[in-house]
Amino acid sequence: MLPQKIYTSRILILDFGSQYTQLLARCIRGIGVYCKLLAWHASEKEIREFNPNGIILSGGPESSISHNSPRVVNYIFHAGVPILGICYGMQVMAVQLGGTVQSSNKREFGSAQITVTKNSPLLPPIFHNTNTDKKIVMDVWMSHSDHVSQIPSDFIAIAHTEKCPVVIMTNETKRFYGVQFHPEVTHTPQGLSLIKQFVQIICQCKALWTTKNIIDDIIKDIKNQIATERVMLGLSGGVDSLVTALLLHHAIGDRLICIFIDNGLLRLGEANHLTTMFSNCFSLNIIHIKAEKRFLDALIGVQEPEAKRKTIGRVFIEIFEEEAVRIGNVQWLAQGTIYSDVIESGITSTSQTHIIKSHHNVGGLPKKMRLKLLEPLKTLFKDEVREIGLKLGLSNSILYQHPFPGPGLSIRVLGEVKKEYCDLLRSADSILIEELHKANLYKKINQAFTVFLPIRSVSVIGDNRKYDWVIAIRAVETTDFMTAQWTNLPHEFLRTVSNRIINEIHSISRVVYDISSKPPATIEWE
Ligand code: XMP
């Protein structure tokens, strides 16, 4: 059921749970080809329905030798489309097609040089480097302990390393390929070219997945779906909801009604800045609801982080419902759900993800509201959303802002949330962010914020002894927000921020810096 033009060339990735699977999907999208992730146990029916031009079997953490390790449905080997197996994906292909995999104590992890003994359409045209023995070599990134020891009878091995006898295996007639290394990571310099060879040359996919085509397609789709009806959208100020708003506005104009709920848990000046800018510059129809008191009242006595999230979610829904009734004649609710939210909520993945914090309400909001759900970004990755935002006129400062959690400052004020604490935290946070911009550090880190600790500590200012609150600074570097390193911010910078916070905010006596990485510590404190 994918009639549109931009979807006509498409690759299916069957995911065995590798940490690089989303990266792989991004590589393919970056080449201009649509791809979708399904869990490794996808059924023949699902695969037939998607009707891919080629299939990639991802890497994964399991050993294909162990009892009950994952296998793909045999149908894919008879579907008549090219297949590329990567790492575990190659091993599983070997085993299912009659070869053997062996465990070895010679693990290969990190950079390696492979020797190529025969050419193949899979190999990029520029791969011909030679080493001192005049052998053709290629630098790659390996991460495995098992290896294919015997290839299926109709395959040939065309590359090896000293430790691994089969690094690339091919069956050119069937267009089946296996690579033991990871072409999707940048440490394999010719990896992207290899993926291009597979997608464009072997699978014959066309580069239709471009930002302009995606925008045109989404707008056309929204127009068809919505016809003359009206849509409500909760505008949070984050990139995803803003891009959703702009696309909808292009498609249906004023029949989009944006609801911006100021819950009193936003950053300094955020609510006014956003609502003014989006109604003035983008002519969006925005209803600005000031609901600080309602949220803070609902949070009285609520200490536990998950309970805070649930309370805030509940009040949001209540306000939405009231607005829907008040506005009347609204049939749709739009949400800025993106592809990573869908994957992380376990809908497509191997469902091994454990819910540590109840983050994203994928499909959660509208149940009670009996509105139809519209999620125009749900096949897109974050960087695709940013590219669309850029084309539609959003500034880099909005597109590349650090993420801000839905429950806002409520999970950065530890324990019970009070207006006084939120106000102090807002001031501290704005100092930190201002200084990060001044020092040209904002773009170099992925997320930075302050946390309010409801404990008192002693300070002496002049001759006066004070007994005041503590602020923690958190700054992390991360690619996927699933793991993160604390940032080694310059001491001079920390000194400036700490001095400013203590001098400019009277009830703060002390500033501390969080030096915990994730895991085990999460990025937010709650
Ligand atoms: P953690 O704290 O789980 O955060 O390491 C990872 C990323 O998710 C953000 N985060 C949230 N975002 N609702 C959100 O919309 C939430 O409840 C929530 N909790 C954490 C966090 O800011 C970081 O970017």
UniProtKB/TrEMBL annotation:
Taxonomy of the source species: Bacteria, Pseudomonadati, Pseudomonadota, Gammaproteobacteria, Enterobacterales
Pfam families from the UniProt entry: GATase (PF00117), GMP_synt_C (PF00958), NAD_synthase (PF02540)
Transmembrane segments: none
Domain GMPS ATP-PPase as annotated: residue spans: 209-401
Function: Catalyzes the synthesis of GMP from XMP.
GO molecular-function term, one example from the UniProt record: ATP binding
Keyword tRNA-binding: no
Record has ATP-binding as a keyword: yes
UniProt-annotated catalytic positions: 87 (nucleophile), 182, 184
Gene3D superfamilies: 3.30.300.10, 3.40.50.880, HUPs
Reactions that this protein is recorded to catalyse: XMP + L-glutamine + ATP + H2O = GMP + L-glutamate + AMP + diphosphate + 2 H(+)
Positions of ATP binding: 236-242
EC number, UniProt record: 6.3.5.2
A GO cellular component entry from the record: cytosol
Coiled coil: none
Gene: guaA
Subunit structure: Homodimer.
Protein name per Swiss-Prot or TrEMBL: GMP synthase [glutamine-hydrolyzing]
Keywords noted in UniProt: ATP-binding, Glutamine amidotransferase, GMP biosynthesis, Ligase, Nucleotide-binding, Purine biosynthesis
Taxonomy, superkingdom: Bacteria
InterPro entries: Class_I_gatase-like, GATASE, GMP_synth_C, GMP_synth_GATase, GMP_synthase, GMPS_ATP_PPase_dom, NAD/GMP_synthase, Rossmann-like_a/b/a_fold
Pathway assignment: Purine metabolism; GMP biosynthesis; GMP from XMP (L-Gln route): step 1/1
